[in-house]
Structure formats: structure tokens, C-alpha cells
From TrEMBL:
One of its GO terms (molecular function) is FAD binding. SUPFAM superfamilies: FAD-binding/transporter-associated domain-like. Keywords: FAD, Flavoprotein, Oxidoreductase, Signal. Its cofactor is FAD. It comes from Linnemannia elongata AG-77. PROSITE patterns: FAD_PCMH, OX2_COVAL_FAD. Residues 84-260 form the FAD-binding PCMH-type domain. The keyword Ribonucleoprotein does not apply. InterPro entries: BBE, FAD-bd_PCMH, FAD-bd_PCMH-like_sf, FAD-bd_PCMH_sub2, FAD-linked_Oxidoreductase, Oxid_FAD_bind_N, Oxy_OxRdtase_FAD_BS. Residues 1-26 form the signal peptide. Pfam families: BBE, FAD_binding_4. This is Glucooligosaccharide oxidase. Belongs to the oxygen-dependent FAD-linked oxidoreductase family.
Length: 518
């Protein structure tokens, strides 16, 4: 998943100017309506319907509780995607698991829905509740990373508020370790893990949930419990793939960390869209035979196709591993292949502003915060088999379109397989173990949403005709996904609802696409 940073403060979400050579106007928009760039919007806080008992209950947390109409609240109320301006009841800046426990107990007592926020990257604003009146539990203060042990028995305990860039840097600094997560450095480890967690190491080591040893989570009663293969097994099952905000507030993860190869080779290859048919056909047919040491993605955009990835090994070995694909795809317009450390590749594909060379840039110490984003809409489809010619033609067609008003519009095509398939579909709540190829469709603010809506409609029609029941990747959550419970969770949804009833019968942890009660 690729995001380039854009300098835009959270407070800027409420004020835009519509200007041309003739006029400048101000507009007042209804709640949740983020205007296109170039408009002024002013939104008044929604009056609270919760009695003072709730605020009094939170009093032990002191200044960590940010109430409406305060400067701190306005600074922290937004998440990554500024399309949404849901108005939380309060924001709690938790600094410990004990803080989370207090907040959850108070929310339950006053029937206020709880919205955990790790990195705040939910495409549908669920990190701020997906509705007005939630308790947003900001977990950025739970940011410790500690590696203990060595070799095959090493463990990495990670606070649920850590972002991926700082996580990778901390693991590297504690002995050269890493984890098999995604590339975007500002994504929070919490939601990313709980939805599965695919990255450039997944074909070799599986999903991020496959590296989990145990999870500490505050349940609906405000108790801190441990979920693992030996404790609270049903909860451990549900949290691995369907755990984002539905069952509790995770405060820490314990993973089995990974020692990457001593030398790793990062690479990019670029082709014009005129070669799209041959390149995409070669790409998806490469999946079954590709070395597990290859982690790769393909961007399809109006300026062409870009393949980028990391190979676990030397530059010479990478050339051998990629040879069959490159022969079938045809000569790229350009390429950039670099041998170095794995963390150098992580930095390269983090796309941090100004393309830094120092790995310390992964620490995101330059002030990256929720709001440094574009207005983003994402969708997904999970393909179980090699793409048909009709699907490749759609990629070529829609990749070439440049909609008006969009700062970036592209399709990311990931080939999965490898170690992702080493785990059975019923081992965790993540059902997409047989995924061959996964698409992420991204529009980073588009004044005219037709690019996304019309494009996705064509891909859905093609999918239903060629691949069976529609499947989507829950980490690219989409409120418009048809039959979303089946698309994200398939046959697991029945068990997930029963676990929900067992651990959260009062539905404390709820948002528009949370796992519902049976």
C-alpha cells in the first residue's frame, strides 16, 4: 500500500476557499461532508447527548481527556482520511493499558461506542468512530518496542500505537530484526495487524498475523486479558483477521520477529501503458513459480506501470530470480536495482517526503500526524486465480484514465501466494489464504468520483462473471462493498458473530462495519 505524504494540517479540513478570477465564496457543509479542494467549509460541533456522568467517570484520566470545543480536541479529532469529520464525544490520549481500561469502563456505563485509533488510516473514518458521538481512544502513547531473546525464540512486544516506520527502525536497532508488514510508514500496527497485514515479506513469511504469539486486549468489561493459542483461543482466532475495533482495544502485540537476509535487493521496473497487456499477463503468471524471496507490487497508473519490490538476496541472485518474468514481460523502459540491507529497501518504498537516505527517517520524527494526507477513497478485490484477459484489459483501460481533480489515482496489483497459503483458511479469521492476486483501487482526492465508482462497477461485473463470490481485503475497508460481511469474512462470519456475542454482548465496540451480534 503506497501513500506519499502531503503537508496538510488537520485543522485545515474545515476551511477551504473557492476562488476563480470572478469570485471567492464561502460554504457551510453538513457534517461529514468534506469539500473538494478549493472550498471553504465551517462545521459546528454537534451538541452532546451524553450526560455529565460520562465525563465525570473519565476524570481520573485528567488532561488525557480532550473534550469538544477545546484546542486539544480540534487538533486530535481527525484521522488520516479527511473526507470524514465525524465528531467524537471525547478523545482520550491513552498512555497505558490502565488508561484504556478506565475509558472502556466509562464508555460501557454510558453506552458510548468505543473507537480505537492506532494509525488512523481507516478508509471510511472508522478510526474516529464512523459516526458522531464515539469515544476515540488514541493509542499513539502506547508506542514501546522491545525485543527479548535471540534466534528462533526471540520475541518482539509492540505497543498497539506504533506506526510501521518507527516499528521497523526500532526492530532494526535492537539487533537487525524486522516484521512482515506493509510499506506505508505512517500506518498503525494495530489495524494493519488485526486485518491480516500483507507486505513485501509475506510471500516468504506469511501475513503479519502469522507472526503473532499473543495479544493483550482490553475487553468490553474493561479487563486486560491475553489472547493466544493457549488462552482465550476464540478471541485469538477472531482478532487475527477480524479484530479491528470489534472485540476490544488491543494494547500490545507479541510477535516472532524476522531476521532478513544479510543482503537484500530493492528494485523498480517501469513500462509504458502500451506494454500493459504483456506485462500484466507475465506478472500474474509469474506468481506460482516466483521465488518466495521475491516480494513485489505493481502500480497501474496513467503514467505507466511500475513494479517495485525487495528480493531477499544479492543483486546477482535477484537477476536470476526475475529473469523468466522479465523475458515474458518485455524490456522495461527503465529500471533501478539496488543491493543493500533490507531496511534500506523499507526506507526506499516508504516514500517519505524528500526521499531521505538516512534510515532514521523511518522514525517519522518530522511531525507526521493524522491529517497529512489526501482525501482518500479505497476499494479492493481478492482474485483466487490467474487473471482473465478481460480483467487485464480493464486494468489497462482504467489505468489509462486521468480523472479531473484527482491528485493521484492508481491501481495496486499484488501477487500473493507463497507462505500466505501455508496456513489453513480456518486457522484464523482471515479467509483469503487462496488469494492469487489482490487489487487495491485508490483515488487520492477526486472532485469527480466517477473514476472510482464507474471503474469499480466494471471490475465487479467482470469478477462475478469469472471468479465466483466477490471477495475484498478488509484492510482496505469500503462501506460500499456489496454484501461486505461475506466479501471480507466469508463462512467465518457465523463463528465471528458468536464470538462477538460471547465477549461483547452489549456491543460496546461498534461502528458501521463492525462484526455484528448474531
Amino acid at each position: 500500500m503506497r501513500f506519499d505524504t502531503l503537508s496538510l494540517s488537520a485543522s485545515a479540513a474545515l476551511l477551504f476557499l473557492s476562488s476563480s478570477s470572478q469570485f471567492t465564496q464561502a460554504y457551510i457543509l453538513p457534517p461529514h461532508a468534506i469539500p473538494a479542494p478549493g472550498l471553504v467549509a465551517r462545521q459546528e460541533p454537534v451538541a452532546s447527548a451524553v450526560n455529565s456522568t460520562f465525563i465525570a467517570c473519565l476524570k481520573p484520566l485528567g488532561a488525557k481527556v480532550l473534550q469538544r470545543k477545546t484546542a486539544g480536541f480540534e487538533k486530535e479529532r481527525y484521522a488520516f482520511d479527511l473526507r470524514y469529520t465525524y465528531n467524537p464525544e471525547v478523545v482520550v490520549m491513552a498512555a497505558s493499558a490502565a488508561d484504556v481500561q478506565v475509558a472502556v469502563k466509562c464508555a460501557k456505563a454510558s453506552n458510548v461506542p468505543v473507537a480505537p485509533r492506532s494509525g488512523g488510516h481507516s478508509f471510511e473514518g472508522y478510526s474516529i468512530g464512523g459516526q458522531d458521538g464515539s469515544l476515540v481512544l488514541d493509542l499513539s502513547g502506547l508506542n514501546s518496542v522491545k525485543v527479548t531473546g535471540s534466534g528462533a525464540t526471540a520475541e518482539a512486544k509492540v505497543g498497539s500505537g506504533v506506526r510501521l516506520g518507527p516499528l521497523y527502525l526500532a526492530l532494526f536497532n535492537q539487533g537487525g530484526w524486522t516484521l512482515n508488514g506493509g510499506t506505508c510508514p505512517s500506518v498503525g500496527v494495530g489495524g494493519h495487524t488485526l486485518g491480516g497485514g500483507f507486505g513485501l515479506l509475506s510471500r516468504k513469511y506469511g501475513l503479519l498475523i502469522d507472526s503473532l504469539l499473543e495479544i493483550e486486549v482490553v475487553n468490553a468489561d474493561g479487563n486486560l486479558v491475553t489472547a493466544s493459542k493457549t488462552q482465550n483461543q476464540d478471541l485469538f482466532y477472531a482478532l487475527r483477521g477480524a479484530g479491528g475495533g470489534s472485540y476490544g482495544v488491543v494494547t500490545s502485540f507479541t510477535y516472532r520477529p524476522i531476521k532478513p537476509a544479510a543482503k537484500a535487493t530493492s528494485f523498480t521496473y517501469n513500462w509504458p501503458l502500451s506494454q500493459a497487456s504483456a506485462v500484466l499477463k507475465a506478472y500474474v503468471e509469474f506468481q506460482p513459480t516466483a521465488s518466495r524471496d521475491i516480494g513485489v507490487e505493481m502500480n497501474v497508473a496513467p503514467d505507466g506501470l511500475m513494479m517495485y519490490g525487495i528480493y531477499q538476496g544479492t543483486k546477482a541472485d535477484q537477476a536470476t530470480a526475475m529473469a523468466s518474468f522479465l523475458t515474458a514481460a518485455g524490456k522495461p523502459k527503465s529500471s533501478d536495482v539496488r543491493e543493500g540491507r533490507y531496511i534500506d529497501g523499507q526506507l526506499r518504498f516508504a516514500y517519505i517526503y524528500n526521499d531521505p537516505k538516512d534510515i532514521n527517517a523511518l522514525g517519522l520524527t518530522g511531525g507526521y500526524k493524522p491529517g497529512d494526507s489526501r482525501y482518500t477513497k479505497g476499494k479492493s478485490l481478492v482474485y483466487p486465480s490467474v487473471l482473465k484477459t478481460s480483467t487485464i484489459n480493464l486494468l489497462k483501460k482504467w489505468g489509462a484514465k486521468t480523472p479531473s481533480g484527482g491528485t493521484a489515482n492508481y491501481i495496486i496489483v499484488d501477487i500473493w501466494g507463497g507462505a500466505v497459503q501455508d496456513h489453513s483458511a480456518d486457522e484464523t479469521a482471515f479467509i483469503h489464504r487462496d488469494a492469487h492476486t489482490v487489487f487495491e483501487f485508490v483515488s487520492e482526492w477526486d472532485e469527480n468520483p466517477d473514476w472510482m465508482n464507474d471503474m469499480y462497477a466494471e471490475f465487479l461485473t467482470d469478477f462475478k462473471a469469472n471468479y465466483g463470490p466477490v471477495r475484498g481485503y478488509q484492510n482496505y475497508i469500503d462501506k460500499d462493498m456489496p454484501n461486505w460481511q461475506d466479501a471480507y469474512y466469508g463462512s467465518a462470519i457465523t463463528r465471528l458473530k458468536q464470538i462477538k456475542k460471547s465477549v461483547d454482548p452489549g456491543n460496546v465496540f461498534r461502528f458501521p462495519q463492525s462484526i455484528p451480534l448474531p
